[in-house]
Design goal:
This protein is α/β, with parallel strands linked by helices. About 40% of the residues lie in helices and about 25% in strands. The protein folds into two domains: about 100 residues, 3-Layer(aba) Sandwich (Rossmann fold), CATH 3.40.50.10860; about 140 residues, 3-Layer(aba) Sandwich (Rossmann fold), CATH 3.40.50.720. The protein is built from ten helices and twelve strands. A six-stranded mixed sheet has the order 2-1-3-5-6-4, with helices on both faces. The chain has a six-stranded parallel sheet with strand order 9-8-7-10-11-12, sandwiched between helices. The structure holds NADPH dihydro-nicotinamide-adenine-dinucleotide phosphate.
Length: about 280
């Protein structure tokens, strides 16, 4: 098969050189026998539409979209999945002729990692989500569909958490508050969806938030335990996880949207973990 007839896929972002998506999707393609190419593409701010048009003309079939282009992708998609509409963001574009379908796979990614890979149960549990940015918006619906007893969102800018609680209240029991208002509450699962760990910071969380046998999940991943995971262990969390599995699981969902084949994820997570810690 010549290079020009092979279906092309890519992740777009700015910056993008750090992206692990090419190695994840190349592993999926090898595993499932799909003949595709997948590259990381640095796109200039304000040039996403031009890039997507050219990419589509050059046999581009699908894109993953990362910071800061999730909103651009949402706007240029010609159709949107229901979950992308509710999340207000798109991380996956599927190009089929003139139709560009937008979807978001972050929520499925988190749920698959938390519930399948780490065997955590959300139903009837008390869940705290910290942060109120794009990633959190994408995971609220699938979390609430698991019927937790209660879901609380806490954020530095409280109004953003309140807006999210309002937007998702039809899906279940969801409330918003400031960090200091969490004092005296306990949770079974605490999910860090802030970007504080990226700068080595920890949101100002009160002590004693973890219920017995509770779990802490940081959407960020790193070679060693993130500041949030370290804090959670000190606070008595029984299990701490980072977001590497979420990254691979959201990629698997994108791959399924494009190729209708569901790759096995465990071996890919293990290989990435090995590379990360080397
Ligand atoms: P956004 O920029 O949309 O949101 C950032 C959030 O973090 C806001 O709620 C912001 O609060 C909060 N925040 C930032 N710095 C601090 C701080 N020092 N103290 C307290 N709160 C802080 O980012 P995203 O939602 O896109 O991403 C959030 C995280 O999720 C990132 O670490 C990202 O890497 C990770 N992620 C992981 C994925 C995976 O597959 N593993 C997928 C997607 C995201 P405020 O509103 O007050 O500004």
């Amino acid at each position: 098969m010549s290079e020009t007839t092979i279906d092309r896929y890519a992740v777009i972002g700015n910056p993008i050189s750090h992206s692990k998506s090419p190695s994840i999707h190349q592993a999926f393609a090898q595993q499932t026998g799909e003949s595709i190419t997948y590259t990381a593409e640095l796109v200039e701010i304000g040039k996403v539409k031009d890039f997507v048009e050219t990419f589509a003309q050059q046999n581009g079939k699908g894109l993953n979209v990362t910071v800061p282009f999730k909103q651009d992708a949402f706007e240029l998609a010609t159709t949107l999945s229901e979950r992308a509409q509710r999340a207000g963001a798109v991380n996956t574009l599927h190009i089929q002729g003139d139709v560009i379908s937008g979807d978001t796979t972050d929520g499925v990614g988190l749920l698959n990692d938390l519930c399948k890979n780490h065997q955590q149960i959300i139903t009837n549990k008390r869940i705290l989500v910290i942060g109120a940015g794009g990633a959190v918006r994408g995971v609220l619906e699938p979390l609430l569909l698991q019927s937790p007893e209660q879901l609380v969102i806490a954020n530095r800018t409280v109004s953003k958490a309140q807006q999210l609680a309002e937007d998702f209240k039809s899906f279940g029991n969801i409330n918003a508050c400031a960090y200091d208002e969490l004092s005296g509450m306990t949770f079974d699962i605490i999910i860090n969806g802030t970007s504080a760990s990226l700068s080595g910071e920890l949101p100002p969380l009160p002590e004693k938030l973890f219920h017995q046998n509770a779990c802490a999940y940081d959407m960020m991943y790193a070679a060693k335990a993130t500041p949030f995971m370290q804090w959670a262990s000190q606070q008595g969390a029984a299990h701490t996880y980072d977001g590497l599995g979420m990254l691979v699981e959201q990629a698997a969902e994108s791959f399924f949207i494009w190729r209708k084949k569901r790759p096995e994820t465990q071996s890919v997570i293990e290989e990435l973990r090995k590379q990360l810690t080397q």
